[in-house]
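Researcher: Next entry in the queue.
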Amino acid sequence: MKPTSIAGVVLGFWFLGCGSSSAETGGSRGGEPSSGGTSKSGAGAASGETGTQLGGAGSASPSSSGTGGWAAGASNGAAASGGTSGVGTSGAGAALGGLSNADGNGGTGGEAITTPAGYKLVWHDEFDVDGAPDPKNWKFEKGFVRNEEDQWYQAANASVQGGLLVLEARLETVQNPNYTGTGDWKTTRKTAEYTSSSINTSGLQSFQYGHFEMRARIPTDAGMWPAWWTLGESGEWPSNGEIDIMEYYQGKVLANVACGTATRYQAKWDSATQQLSALGGAAFTSQFHVWTMDWDDQNIILSLDGTQMNTTALSAALNADGTSPFKQKDYLLLNLALGGQNGGDPSKTTFPQRYEVDYVRVFQKQ
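Model: Structure for this entry, 366 residues:
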């Protein structure tokens, strides 16, 4: 994506303010029609504090030692060693955006939940019960949905196994029951050659403001496009607001905030991008990492393993009519997309591919 204006470079991130429209056209994550609208893409915002070195005191490699940043196994805000057993909470408190268990281990069932100081746990899913995702928390998308993506979404590709939510992309042919041979891409494809899953909390769980946290291991092979994101309950995309707490495609980890413009289905993006190679490449992919959002009535702060990637002031993220899309409740989405407008070519990738989520938690101020 080519930004319309470059404000500067900080720590390897490119800046594009939410007040600038993307130059790239196409569909976006929000589910609007693929004709018109900007593609969710990554010209990124300058983020992280000046003088902060990714990887803490050391290099940006996940294997480096140090006290934060991308250093694997660091424990800024790590899970409390004491506290209650099972799915309990600990008042030890982590710094907002803190890193928790960013390592190669799987599910953390049985460990105490570290609650940031001054916050309370209001909702969480630890994915501790094998089977389908909890229907009290999650519903499924089905079929071809957005961004001209290659996969057919179906419930069969989402399961809870051994303390992890697994969204699995598979190489398998599925007939498109909506095929007509005419119309848009959703009706002119006879088949899908891949399947995957997308789940969300719409109508079930939604939140306005708080500390949001997910620990996950994401697939980064060619064509993979995993994301954890939110959409506002009210309004049409993008004027309902979109926050991409975690997004990955084509060698880039992104953190994005989008609001509306005077043109229907065209978003203004405030985005931050970090190259996978700078995070450690295959070593990063092999490990679990913690993504967080700290959202209040002033700012949205998106962080990876305790290092801020993107900070957006709500006063700068306004729709064309001057309203803020981020002063309402949002629901959560987890999906593993393939190909399409941004994901890249998955044809040479080995399947299945797994997006593994240890937990999703929401804390709000007491």
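Model: Residues 1-17, 19-28, 32-100 have pLDDT under 50 and may be disordered.
Researcher: Noted, moving on.
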